[in-house]
TrEMBL record:
<dbReference type="GO" id="GO:0046523">
    <property type="term" value="F:S-methyl-5-thioribose-1-phosphate isomerase activity"/>
</dbReference>
<comment type="pathway">
    <text>Amino-acid biosynthesis; L-methionine biosynthesis via salvage pathway; L-methionine from S-methyl-5-thio-alpha-D-ribose 1-phosphate: step 1/6.</text>
</comment>
<dbReference type="InterPro" id="IPR011559">
    <property type="entry name" value="Initiation_fac_2B_a/b/d"/>
</dbReference>
<dbReference type="InterPro" id="IPR037171">
    <property type="entry name" value="NagB/RpiA_transferase-like"/>
</dbReference>
<feature type="site" description="Transition state stabilizer">
    <location>
        <position position="165"/>
    </location>
</feature>
<protein>
    <recommendedName>
        <fullName>Methylthioribose-1-phosphate isomerase</fullName>
        <ecNumber>5.3.1.23</ecNumber>
    </recommendedName>
</protein>
<keyword id="KW-0413">Isomerase</keyword>
<dbReference type="InterPro" id="IPR042529">
    <property type="entry name" value="IF_2B-like_C"/>
</dbReference>
<feature type="binding site">
    <location>
        <position position="204"/>
    </location>
    <ligand>
        <name>substrate</name>
    </ligand>
</feature>
<comment type="similarity">
    <text>Belongs to the EIF-2B alpha/beta/delta subunits family. MtnA subfamily.</text>
</comment>
<keyword id="KW-0486">Methionine biosynthesis</keyword>
<feature type="binding site">
    <location>
        <position position="91"/>
    </location>
    <ligand>
        <name>substrate</name>
    </ligand>
</feature>
<dbReference type="InterPro" id="IPR000649">
    <property type="entry name" value="IF-2B-related"/>
</dbReference>
<comment type="function">
    <text>Catalyzes the interconversion of methylthioribose-1-phosphate (MTR-1-P) into methylthioribulose-1-phosphate (MTRu-1-P). Also catalyzes the interconversion of 5-deoxyribose 1-phosphate and 5-deoxyribulose 1-phosphate. Part of a bifunctional DHAP-shunt salvage pathway for SAM by-products.</text>
</comment>
<dbReference type="InterPro" id="IPR005251">
    <property type="entry name" value="IF-M1Pi"/>
</dbReference>
<feature type="binding site">
    <location>
        <begin position="54"/>
        <end position="56"/>
    </location>
    <ligand>
        <name>substrate</name>
    </ligand>
</feature>
<dbReference type="GO" id="GO:0019509">
    <property type="term" value="P:L-methionine salvage from methylthioadenosine"/>
</dbReference>
Amino acid sequence: MKINGVPYRSVWLNEKDGWSVHIFDQTRLPFSLDILTLTTPDEVAQAICTMQVRGAPLIGAVAAYGLALALRQDASDTSLENQATMLAATRPTAINLRWAIDRMLTCLRPLTPEQRVAKAYAEAEAICDEDAAQNEAIGRHGLQIIRDIAKTRPAGAQINILTHCNAGWIATVDWGTALAPIYMAHDEGLNVHVWVDETRPRNQGAALTAWELGSHGVPHTVIADNAGGHLMQHGKVDMVIVGTDRVTRNGDVANKIGTYLKALAAQDNAIPFWVALPSTTIDWTVADGVQEIPIEERAASEITHVAGRDPQGTQTTVQITPDGSTAANPAFDVTPARLVTGLVTERGCCPATAEGLRTLFPESSPSA
């Protein structure tokens, strides 16, 4: 995707040395476009933990490069296993992270230490390329959903789409998941408008999704998280589409906290609720998302404080709760499959059911 006309991916190698890793510092967006250079696995782990880099597909790709950086320091069997364990533990909910580390280990374990560094970089690059291609395919399949809605409207009528959190290109290697169909619809000339949930507590919608859409020229409006149901009741939402950090083999969906409430409101108002994901986000080992998916608990300070920019242009953080008030901060919730209209994957769309997923991915389902 492009920023001010310049094409970027969300992770890339330094052109000068060919081995250090560049990412955008997402904690500085939308007010500052800062590029970080990561040179050690500890720096990669820190970037993931602090959400300088975030988004389920992207953290998997960056962690893969983190393992390559680790092997530059020590390519022994012990180092490979220890660094993989360290990187995999940085965030528990997004399955793409574990998937990427497991793929790297499968590739690297049979090799000698002398062979591992070059192969690690090549495999991490392959993970990135595959993610970009998958997300572009998700965009094409999701675009057809938007086209179908457009066919039911008068020519040129606005199509209102609501999304929660950030599932755009900044959360993946390129294109994004939930936003990819929107970008393609806009580029095709469809009159799309996006309701952007602010997505408390970290405001990924207000900061990242709005920034992305604005950079691409997509009409959008930022709304408070609790406004979505009201808009649905008054006929101002035609569809909801979100990303996800983990999908069970039965179609339950873990996504940013607040997604479940949007799905309930969508069902109550007969509005389609779609979830976009690459197949790397499917956890075939889990059946019951509510009971089995680990939900990350993040720092209370994300609730008690809010980041922004003051009138002088300085980025700052201010406290918004009384001294002494405690705060709980579950980062994700699980939307049961019964509330999901369907899943949009790189292989097409399917119902959020075991049968639907098995139809698209027969080689991966437990019964294969």
